[in-house]
Amino acid sequence: MTLLMVETRRTDETFGELWLAWRREHGLPAPSAHHGAEALFDHFPFLLWEHFPAVTLGAARRIALAARAHGMASGLRDARVRGGGEASTTGAARAWLRDLARRRLEPIIPPGDRYWRLLADDRGPRGLPSWSDLPHATAAAFAVCGGDPALLPAVQESQTHLYAGLALYRDCVRWKRDFLAGYRSEVVGPLLDALGGTSAPDTLGTSEPDTPGTSAPDTLGASVLDAFGSASGAAEREARLPDAARVLHYGGVAERALDAAAEHLARSMAAVTDLPPVSFAAMLARLYGDVLRLRSDLAETRARHLGPARARAAVRSRPPAAARLDDMSDMSDMSEHPVRVSVAHMSENPVRVAATHTSENAVRASDAQMSEKAVRAALAHMGGEQYADGHFGDFLVLTQQSTSWATGYVGWNLAHAGLRAPALDAAARWLVENRAPGGGWGYNGHWPADNDSTANALMFLIDRPGVDRALLEPALDHLLATQAPDGGFTTVDDLSAWLVRFRAPTDDAPGWTTPHPCVTAMVALMLSRVGGDRATAAADAALTFLRRCQRPAGYWDAYWWVGGLYTTCRAVQALCAVKRESPDAGGTLARAAGWLLRSRRADGGWSGGHREGSGAFQTALAVQALCALRDDHHDHHDREALERAVAGGVRWLAGHQLPDGSWPVEPVLRVPRPDVVEPWRDVTWTESILGLDIVVPDWRRLFTGAAAVHALRRATGPLSRPTLEHALKGER
Q1: How far from 200 is each of 207, 224, 367, 621, CA to CA, in Å?
Q2: Which residue has the higher pLDDT, 591 or 364?
């Protein structure tokens, strides 16, 4: 048993004794196990302690006990609001619990510290739901005692999203109890709307919580009974329960709430990515997994009862998690995160934009207008996800989001789509300032540098105005030095660091150390833009490697990506970018074009791996590759067929964009064990953010969005200046 577990048990035992003694003194029965185990009101104080190592054990114990008392007080209030508990005792109990928390903290927090105002404000920060003050108060206590306020914003943001996710998850699990009690929770509310029930008052569930010295606890029950109908409506609610269950399970209500919960938990992990990995992240990962499993179980249930086709259509059409709170609750402020630099303020970069074609099969004017609208909406979404210092984050592997790799990928896709903006300048500055020792880049700042992350960053920076190329030379030199004799590039350079990070079960790592077609194609594409004899020779060797790796059907396998479209797209782009003839250049590209055309689905999109429906990421990659072939200098392609496929892909992307400007995502990144050499032969992968042999979605939807913007702009050409100016203002 770890020290944290021992201390947690000790805190629970101490608090339990004090709480039981108070209840006996007031003639109350022993507390139920339910109140002692409510996860939403147990803010894991000893896990937070890991972020503030300067805090002594004695102070940590005091903070933990105060947090336990504070959590119980909030739990009692929540139970009262939801129709449980005695009004005559809840107020007194909460007052005693808050006083207990204060007495525990007084010896370690100065009397005049601003912390006390936070503890006294039972409404939570920024008008958020009442439970949100728990994590803020606990984290703030650690920061005050540890004298390290710099960590507080990231920890509090993480805690805020944690409890927002827990609240939604809890509402899904206990929806039936809330429905029968007449409480309009974040899940019951949409159920009532779908059932056509009586609307609840706007103030339901958001009334001002009680503060010391008021009688609010005695009147909270009234608003509960007014939720839909009165106390006499219990029989009606009981009768409508089967209908509510059908709406919950088959109408997508629960799935949307769980999508929202999962996104909040993902944002919670992302907020502390730049802090050292601790047990708190592992706890978040477990909670995230619980939400995903429940979400998957609901989807399977719906699929069995509605039929596969209807279920897939319903899942594809559901709103994104980012838009979920707008129509499910009044908690939309909970989705705030430090993203203040906008990708708006775009201006044309005519050097980057491919010419549009005017043949009878070219993208129609109406398609181009759809594309422009989709690009503007996508840029608004991505701008909202960019951090204030300029970087982007996406994916979650080992509970950490990618920053360096994600920033390079998003940056070069937007730049090569013909866009330039202050936001991209900020992203470039961030990348330059956050190089790894030796000059390269890794998945994020905690991970060792790798060739794929370095290639994506260099692709963005190598010819970007204002970037000193001399600062990039060490990374380029190191990358070129890792090229294998056969011309290929692997991902991992420092194998031992990767094995330790993943706690790999074996040090036999042929899969991680063998050259990968997907990485080699990305490096070759980047080298095609570098120039110079050494880079040119390395690019030629990489292209030779790729020609050898091409499958007879015309595609390339990917080590780190689901399906063959990622590698095929990058290989085609690299081959088309190099304006040097080779004996088999035409045949290689012709085979790739044939495979891309044959693999197109009837709906105009493309899919990856064994997925049944088309996907946005895969379709965007296919359109990018087809555009490269369409504009290629070799004259051996059926250009009319390419144009038709491009136009169909544009229409698919424009037609499947979500209301917030993003696209639906799916697990596209896979992380095989180090001894797996050919992961494309295995079709059984687990969606997770921990361990190996997993697949991961780009949860912020930035990789998919950047790929789609690149594809749409390459397919249809530049936005007109007036249209672009509207995009700058965020108009849809």
Answers
A1: 13, 10, 43, 47
A2: 591
